[in-house]
Amino acid sequence: MKKLLLLALFCLVGSGVYAQKNSHNGHEWVDLGLPSGLKWATCNVGASRPGDYGNYYAWGETSTKGDYSWSTYEWYDNFTGTVTKYKADELDPSDDAATANWGGDWRLPTKTEFEELLRECTWEWTTHNGHNGYKVTGPNSQSIFLPAAGWRLRADEDRVGSYGYYWSSTPYESFACSLFFLADGHGEYWRSRYYGLSVRPVLE
């Protein structure tokens, strides 16, 4: 009986019916078959399932808060009206919401890595676990789901279910590059860094 069970399990794995889950530091990832070999997490930071929205973070901050504005932004001088750090440099791991919250080698994707996701994958607007978003399918037919979690401005959630914004690690002056999408399209958007956006970690 034990041999028959082992044989049945082997057949399921070999046929692709049973998919082995990959994880790093307790969080699952998917290899989409991208040219870079980059692995994408299956969930947002703060989410327990792929369709859940998860937490919102200002760019370069690692904790959630009740007010997303310049007045509460960590790297902003309200007296001079200028950002005080990261005017053109990539994030330090200590200020990366993916690294700080998930540990290990998890990090925010770069602008270039978002461009690869946009260029190399098929994007399909759909619903998963009751939430709208995009099923993003790579060259090897593996996929991830990015929910349209909207954003946080001050204490309010906005455009939840219709827009998605995800931080990259790439800043410029008082902005940072984000992945942007809605049902009619997807691309990049330079968003003011104090906004609370979603975070989808990656692994090299």
Give a brief rundown of this model:
The chain is about 15% helix and about 35% strand.
Key structural traits:
204 residues; alpha+beta; four-stranded antiparallel beta sheet; three-stranded antiparallel beta sheet; 3 helices; 14 strands; 15% helix; 33% strand; disordered N terminus
Describe this structure in words.
With 204 residues, this protein is an alpha+beta fold. Helix content is 15%, strand content 33%. It has a 4-stranded antiparallel β-sheet, with no helix packed on it. The longest helix is centred in the N-terminal third of the chain and has 14 residues. It is globular, with a radius of gyration of 18 Å. The N terminus is likely disordered.
Give the topology:
Elements: H1 2-15, E1 22-24, E2 27-31, E3 39-41, E4 76-77, E5 82-83, H2 97-102, H3 111-120, E6 122-128, E7 131-137, E8 143-147, E9 151-153, E10 156-158, E11 163-172, E12 175-182, E13 185-192, E14 202-203
Antiparallel strand pairs: 1-2, 2-3, 3-14, 4-5, 6-7, 7-8, 9-10, 11-12, 12-13
* Largest sheet entry: 4 strands, antiparallel
The total strand number stands at 14
Main β-sheet, spatial strand arrangement: 1-2-3-14
| Distance N to C terminus | 42 Å
Sequence stretches where pLDDT stays below 50 over 5 or more residues = 1-20
Helix tally equals 3
Structural class: alpha+beta
Helix content: 10-25%
